[in-house]
Amino acid sequence: MKKLLGILVLGYRIMLNKIIFKFIKCIVLFLKKINLKKFLFDKLIFNIGLNQILENRKNYQSMNDIAEAELKIFSQNGEDGIIDYLIYKLKLNSLNFVELGVGDYRESNTRFLYNRYHPKGLIVDSVENLENKVKPYVNLWKGDLRICNKQITFDNIDDILKQYSNFEIDIFSIDIDSIDYWIIKKIQKNISKIFIAEYNPVFGPTLEVTVPNIPGFNRTKYHYSNLCYGMSLKALINLMNKKNYSFVGTNLQKMNAFFVLNELNVDDIFGNLKIKSLNHYTDSNIRDSRDKKYKLNYLTGENKLKEIQDCEVINLENNNEELIKLKDLL
């Protein structure tokens, strides 16, 4: 009798566990379906990040390097914190933005700005079904976020900006891993108060180069290593000087440079910043290089530049635009 009772109890427990397991599985599937888990996680990150930014502001006046303000909320690295530092110091009243190259917008330079202030904004990327991919990360009805699902080219950038950004731009960000130099060269001077642009630290501190202005440029197709793209920091700074901007520093990863419009009293507002040598801003520890089978091979230091020495670039030194192999400049 006891043995039979034990078997019944064991069977009951197994059946109960199966029921509980199926119930939990249904709950998980439901949460996934309504995307609640991601929503709650992002909401938590937003509030933690906002509280930290408000705390960091207490130290803004004493900072002598914008990288000290780094804080990652929704940006790829710590750009959220640096952007807040700049807008706080400049006392900007509006925060309208344009961001070129956003992926699905989960990690981007302007997502936190939009979710906090809901200003006017334009994001541009060629990712398939961009609007559908962006929607889970923002409330489109709360602000005026315009989404342009196109590949950015030298020929269409002016038309894109005219069509989608009929507002005063406060923050402009570009990170398209390709012909960034040529896009910046094409756009008008004084386009925004704050300007953020990605550069390629692999090119080092002395070269003034960019990849050629190739329509549909793809960094992986241009060189398997993924290391030959964009422009050198020196080329970017010289170009931005012509656009009436002052360089104020980079992020800690040394890949995104920040500029402020000269008319905004840069020297007075950011006089405490100590701008370092270009050697410092190009000494990056990022190791995202690939081998010919597209596997990470973690090249470091000069080996990264050596890997792409046979690539053709445009040498911009002395205002020339000469197509040349990298190895002929080294």
- Proportion in helices: 25-40%
Q: Into which percentage range does the β-strand content fall?
A: 5-15%
- Give the rounded overall mean pLDDT: 92
CATH superfamily: Vaccinia Virus protein VP39
Structure summary, number of beta strands: 10
Shape: globular
CATH first level: Alpha Beta
Radius of gyration (Å): 24 Å
> What structural class do the secondary elements suggest?
alpha/beta
* Oligomeric state of the chains in view: single chain
Largest sheet: 7 strands, mixed
* Contiguous runs where pLDDT drops below 50 for at least 5 residues: none
> What is the CATH fold-level name?
Rossmann fold
Total domain count = 1
Distance between the termini: 90 Å
CATH architecture term:
3-Layer(aba) Sandwich
Which sequence of strands runs across the widest sheet?
3-2-1-4-5-8-7
Q: How many DSSP helices?
A: 12
N to C succession of SSEs: HHHEHEHEHEHEEHHEEHHHEE
Write up this protein.
With 330 residues, the protein is α/β, with parallel strands linked by helices. The chain has one domain (32-328): Rossmann fold (3-Layer(aba) Sandwich). 37% of the residues lie in helices and 14% in strands. It contains twelve helices and ten strands. The protein has helices at 2-34, 36-56, 79-90, 111-117, 130-134, 157-164, 180-186, 219-222, 233-242, 266-269, 278-282, 302-307, and strands at residues 97-100, 120-124, 144-148, 171-174, 194-198, 209-210, 245-250, 256-261, 312-315, 322-325. The strands form two sheets. A seven-stranded mixed sheet has the order 3-2-1-4-5-8-7, sandwiched between helices. A three-stranded antiparallel sheet has the order 6-9-10, with no helix packed on it. Strand 1 (97-100), helix 4 and strand 2 (120-124) form a beta-alpha-beta unit. It is globular. The mean pLDDT is 92.
